[in-house]
Amino acid sequence: MSSPAVDVADARPRVRPLRWLAGAVLLVLAAQLAWFLVTNPRFEWPVVADYLLDPNILAGLGMSLLLTVVAMALGSGLGVLLAAGRLSGFKPLAWACGVYVAVFRGIPPLVQLIFWFNLGYLLPRISLGVPFGPTFASWPTNAVISSLTAAILGLTLHEAAYMAEIVRAGLLAVDGGQRDAARAMGFTARQSFVKVVLPQAMRVIIPPTGSQFISLLKGTSLVSVIAMADLLYSVQVIYNRTYQIVPLLIVACAWYLAVVTVLSVGQRRLERHFGKGQR
């Protein structure tokens, strides 16, 4: 005898007790965390509200954003040149670019910032002239390498090493046959790169570049060790005076989270734009 026909429309989803249990555990943990945040007076939420829009805090936030944009722009430009050098057929240039990437990726950014800030110890004066020849101009290093200069220099050189690898990986991800097909259609080398290679490479380049931008924003907090008035340094100046450490750190966390959230939304939109046709 044949079994009776089963109507798929009458099927019911299986009961998954482990999922219900995990959901209940997460709900309890979320409720406990909310209760802890609301009922613990040591968070001092009124203090957080008072300092959230403090002019010094906003000025520090602006400096963090400025450092991020400047270092990312300069680092990306230098990273593109390094990636081109590493892909070059000229072996000495490729080797030099590879050494740069290895060195500046291997040294922590905090160490680099402190090193550039103290460059005057190794090089008392910065000179402009002919190597091993006459000097045309000279300036005291401490007058040139300020906190701002050291911050931009350290973050840019560190970021360039990572961007070089991101750009190089994106270009290598494009199949060589794409270039050959573009040439066969009569495209010049520049047209084939701009219209064929680059749009495909951007699908690989954009996601890690967005992550690097966000990481760089958070990494600007390191410049506080060289007395650069970023967001964290502005918070530290206030809580060193008022001894309200936790609420001021919550203010810094709130602004970092807000900016990173906005940047993450922009990153996802860029990924969708360059990912058209891939999904």
Structure description:
By secondary structure, this protein is mainly alpha-helical. The protein has 12 helices and 2 strands. The chain has helices at about 15-40, 45-50, 55-85, 90-105, 110-115, 120, 140-145, 145-170, 175-185, 190-220, 230-240, 245-275, and strands spanning about 125-130, 135-140. Strands 1-2 form a two-stranded antiparallel sheet. Helix 3 packs across helix 8 (about 145-170) and helix 4 crosses helix 8 (about 145-170). The radius of gyration is 27 Å and the shape is flat. The mean pLDDT is about 85. Keywords: Amino-acid transport, Cell membrane, Membrane, Transmembrane, Transmembrane helix, Transport.
Structural class: mainly alpha
Question: Strand share of the residues?
Answer: under 5%
End-to-end C-alpha gap: 47 Å
Q: Outline the low-pLDDT stretches.
A: none
The outline comes out as: flat
Strand segment tally: 2
If classified by CATH, what would the architecture be? Answer: Orthogonal Bundle
Count the domains: 1
Radius of gyration: 27 Å
Going by CATH, the homologous superfamily would be MetI-like
Number of DSSP helical runs: 12
CATH class bucket: Mainly Alpha
Q: What do we call the CATH topology?
A: MetI-like fold
- The average pLDDT is 87
Order of helices and strands: HHHHHHEEHHHHHH
What percent of residues adopt helix (DSSP H or I)? Answer: over 70%
Main sheet: strand order: 1-2
Biggest pleated-sheet summary: 2 strands, antiparallel
Subcellular location: Cell membrane
Transmembrane segments: 20-38, 58-81, 93-117, 137-158, 221-239, 245-266
Membrane topology: Multi-pass membrane protein
Main location: membrane
